[in-house]
Amino acid sequence: MKVFLSDKLVDEKDAVVSVFDHGLLYGDGVFEGIRAYNGRVFLVDEHIDRLYDSAKAIALNIPMTKTEMSQAVVKTCKANEISDGYVRLVITRGKGTLGLNPYLCKKAEVIIIAATIQLYPQELYDTGLKIVTAGTVRNHPEALNPRIKSLNYLNNVMAKIEAINAGCLESLMLNHKGEVAEASGDNVFAVKNGVLTTPLSSCGALEGLTRSKVMELAREAGYEVHEGVMARYDLYVADEVFLTGTAAEIISVVDIDKRSIGNGKPGKITNELSALYAAYARSEGTLIQ
Ligand code: PXG
């Protein structure tokens, strides 16, 4: 495998960073997870815009232009003959000293890995996921804003641990006010009487690109879509619940905290949106050439 590191492609064995990199020492950095479908990088500009916004929010200067970054993503996919795959784009603060001061890190490190990903077993896309609410509260927006896709994922990792300990693969996260925020690595939607609702990003949700695309596709298909403040109650009594994410795509949730959702099977609207998303994802994107 070839990995893009700093400014060029190197062999996987040479793709190493310093133990003094603040990405490792402090989780100081930002990242993106991007999909490639059918020989194209899906939503690359949107991912790169969000990456630069996350970097801006943590005062991190990315030493490449957005155009150079998207070219580097395509180049890394091409070098690894990726047609359908997953790109992990990581920007760390770079090599510094044993102290927090990020200004002592001279240059941010750029890492691009192009590989594949399977977040959940395929059969769960047919049967749906069971999830539980995590006791770990989503980061307070004035502590670490969940809109920043930072390398500091401990909040999510702790919620994931709770999911796995409960025999589930994913957990629901609430914010400090007890409102629904998102899942540990995906956004959440409820469908009730044909209307879709997803938590506002101000409730502690990452502004997921899959979330945005699904809202757009649902509106085009004639559904009413809202962003709002949601309680767990709204999910328990929904007709359908599903999660969205680059890696997860669209996956139905059929059980939350032992409450069966709707009829306990993936819903009609979830399946319809899933098909629309799959078709869209395979028709759009920046050519890998
Ligand atoms: N919330 C959180 C906390 C996420 O990490 C999403 C929502 C969905 O956002 P997008 O833009 O992807 O629709 C994410 C994204 C992984 C992995 O390796 C996780 C994500 C994306 C890609 C890979 O677990 N999470």
Task: Write a compact overview of the structure shown.
By secondary structure, the protein is an alpha+beta fold. The chain has 2 domains: 2-115, 2-Layer Sandwich (D-amino Acid Aminotransferase, Chain A, domain 1); 122-281, D-amino Acid Aminotransferase, Chain A, domain 2. It is built from 8 helices and 16 strands.
Question: Can you put this structure into words, describing what you see?
Answer:
The chain has 289 residues and is an alpha+beta fold. Strands 7, 8, 9, 10, 11, 12, 13, 14 and 15 form a nine-stranded mixed beta sheet that branches. Strands 2-1-6-5-3-4-16 form a seven-stranded antiparallel beta sheet. Helix 2 (44-57) crosses helix 3. The radius of gyration is 19 Å and the shape is globular. Strand 10 (187-192) and strand 11 (195-199) form a beta hairpin. The chain has two domains: 2-115, D-amino Acid Aminotransferase, Chain A, domain 1 (2-Layer Sandwich); 122-281, Alpha-Beta Barrel (D-amino Acid Aminotransferase, Chain A, domain 2), CATH 3.20.10. It contains eight helices and 16 strands. The protein binds 3-[O-phosphonopyridoxyl]--amino-benzoic acid (PXG). Residues 33, 156, 182, 185-187, 206, 208-211, 244-247 line the site of 3-[O-phosphonopyridoxyl]--amino-benzoic acid (PXG).
Pick out its properties:
289 residues; alpha+beta; D-amino Acid Aminotransferase, Chain A, domain 1; D-amino Acid Aminotransferase, Chain A, domain 2; 28% strand; binds 3-[O-phosphonopyridoxyl]--amino-benzoic acid
